[in-house]
Write the structure tokens for this entry.
Amino acid sequence: MTKITFGTDGWRGSIAEDYTFLNVRRCAQGFANFLNEHGYEKESVVVGYDKRFLSENFAAASAEVLAGNGFHVYLTNTATPTPVISYSIVEKSAAGGVNITASHNPPADNGFKVRNEFGGAIDPKNLMEIESKIPSDEDTIQRIPFDEAQKSGKVELFDPAPAYIRQLHDLVDFEMLRQAGLKICVDPMWGNGAGWFPRLLGGGKTTIIEIHNLRNPIFPGMKRPEPIPPNVDEGLRATLDSQADVLIITDGDADRLGLGDEKGEFIDQLRVFALLAYYFLEVKGMRGPIVKTLSTTSMLNKLGKIYNVPVYETGVGFKYVAPKMLETHAMIGGEESGGYAFHGHVPERDGILAGLFLLEMMVKLNQKPSQLVEQLFSVVGAHYYDRIDTPFHGDKKEKEDHILNANPPSIAGIPVTGLDHTDGYKFQLGDGGWLLIRFSGTEPIIRVYTETTFQDRVQQILQEGLKIAGIE
């Protein structure tokens, strides 16, 4: 039997290799065991899925097992954005949820994510407990065939959209956006975000142009549905060709956001996070803690000092961010990969809501995206970011020892002022920037990231980071 290990955000595998119906059922049984032992017997569980190959079938297999363990299963009636699934958990007062998605992984992958009763990521301790309860064989898996479970009412198909849309109406001024006369290009990357912005903002003076809005599990034109270059290049060209005001990009399951400006230039996720925080603090006048992973922007620390709000830093992944947001009653939380969560909503990444907030910011300040970035930089100074992902082979421990023993006094001529190895290896730099070397929690990849105030040193910092990691 395959050893199933939960990474940064649940379990992901290659379809038909290790990601099989049997292994998905094993995961569902492990989650059922966890819920039952934590006092959630016979309560409800939400199950949803994305547009990847056979996702609806894997979701049905999960529903069979949860129903077989005595839970009432609410199964989404179609492929559904991750934030909509998470909100449904709260709306249904469910014990938790299962989401069949590999988010922005390559086309051959799929995944099994679990969520708690708040609709947020489950903390690392409980993730490990769920993993430990996954049976090693199929003998202890309890399941009811799907048709039988549905006929008996133990599995109930439902439409999660109306409740989520009602929730958004409490957070966003839709009439203002509909009548703003914006021209918005949307790239849902062949994924779950397709159709949502036209549905939410159609019927007024604002125009929505969608590309890549059909189901296609091979994600043509991109290596994976991750909202970063070069995957976003077609969307940026479409923005220029259509003379749109902005490009909104959602990843495969629509929990992450990418942004392009009116000039067809990509705005990286660190700047987007800082823009969202600045919008809440300066324009909406909100106050509250900010939760950030160690791989995201130091502009948030500067905003925290300016507006006198605390900033909490966590390890990478929403399994750290979501619990910290709940603990601190945070105003906003987010990570480098483009996932942002908001006060008054579920502690879950929401690419749709993040996009709507940025559109509100454009309308309220009467500025194009490039102008918003200029205004942000006038407050916190210019910051530049990039990252390199590279496969690695050999022993991970040797690579970690190589990094720890490097002790560079400077990187790209900038003094090193400290090293934080809370999650990966983050070298603090004298300009307030940083270099982070981190092993992916879901793939055999080393990620090297940097943020600096020196635009001309970004690539040099990254290359020196690769050398520190023992990759020439």
Summary: The chain has three domains: 11-161, 171-380, 384-468. The longest strand covers residues 384-391.
